[in-house]
Amino acid sequence: MNAATSHSATPKASVQTPLLSVRDLSVSYGGIQAVKALSLDLFEGELVSLIGANGAGKTTTLKAICGLLSPSAGEVRYLGQPIQGQGAWDLVAQGLVMVPEGRGIFTRMTIDENLRMGAYLRKDAQIESDMAAVYQRFPRLKERHKQLAGTLSGGEQQMLAMGRALLARPKLLLLDEPSMGLAPIMVDLIFEVIREVSQQGVTVLLVEQNAQRALQMADRAYVLDSGEVVLQGAASELLGNPQVQAAYLGV
Questions:
Q1: What is d(CA 150, CA 105) in angstroms, rounded to the nearest whole number?
Q2: At what angle do helices 127-137 and 154-167 cross, to 10 degrees?
Q3: How far is residue 248's CA from residue 251's CA, in Å, rounded to a whole number?
Q4: Using N-to-C axis directions, what is the helix angle for 154-167 and 111-118, rounded to 10°?
Q5: d(Cα 135, Cα 147) in Å, to the nearest integer?
Q6: What is the DSSP secondary structure assignment for residue 110, as one 8-state letter?
Q7: Which of 173, 158, 201 is nearest to 62 (CA)?
Q8: pLDDT of 67-87, one tens digit each?
Q9: pLDDT at 9 over 50
Q10: Which residue spans within the chain are E strands per DSSP?
């Protein structure tokens, strides 16, 4: 895919400071440069998708943003401030929360205990009401709230991982492959929850193997190839882009 750019800024982008701004980000594993001078912006309330083939650098980008990897170059700014060097726990306290690929649940803890870990850094009085809201969104979790998380199905574990993230009250939610390995009916449920969370005002950066579904629900999108942004723009425009269709949509 050629390193072309198809960018149409949203109206909000022209008047707001980005909630998240990444500039010239590079990340290396040993001698391998996984991300190369990557730049992207997210504005408050947006749902932005990051798509690309396996190995394109999508997960590495998310991990560098949320403090799980140290960039070799570049800058990440969140809420207008540089955040390099801060631990993931510091960023969670500031509302930057990630649901990792593979869910990352605590398998030997109950559903209830996993959810409460999402609120570990909170001191406010709304934790119980937020727990109730998660159980209302995922009634299957409520039915089994004393069950060990490791005994859940893949779809139930994904519900739990997302519910735990919501208990942290995110301003910016990073989602890494939330539909991976799930049955179609569960994929529909997870995407509906993502849509609802976005509509409630949470800014979302979505990495997703199902590029068509990701583009259909996103406001904007970035396409990564070999660690570089090669296309960006309105998600609706990228859906109709012949390069994207050929490479990621099977058209």
A1: 8
A2: 150
A3: 8
A4: 30
A5: 14
A6: B
A7: 173
A8: 999 999 999 999 999 998 898
A9: no
A10: 20-29, 32-42, 47-52, 73-78, 81-82, 96-99, 172-176, 203-207, 220-225, 228-234
CA–CA gap between residue 53 and residue 208 (Å, rounded): 10
Nearest to 110 by CA among 135, 90, 85: 135
SS3 (DSSP) at 195: helix
Average pLDDT over residues 95-112: 92
Q: Going along 54-170, which residue ranges are E strands?
A: 73-78, 81-82, 96-99
Residue whose structure tokens are 């207008």: 80
Residue 3 reports pLDDT greater than 60: no
Question: What strands, in cross-sheet order, belong to the sheet with 81-82?
Answer: 32-42, 20-29, 73-78, 81-82
Looking at residues 44-63, what average pLDDT do you find? 95
Full-model pTM: 0.89
Which H or E run includes 153? none
First-to-last alpha carbon distance for the chain, in angstroms, is 15
Return the H-helix or E-strand segment holding 40: strand 32-42
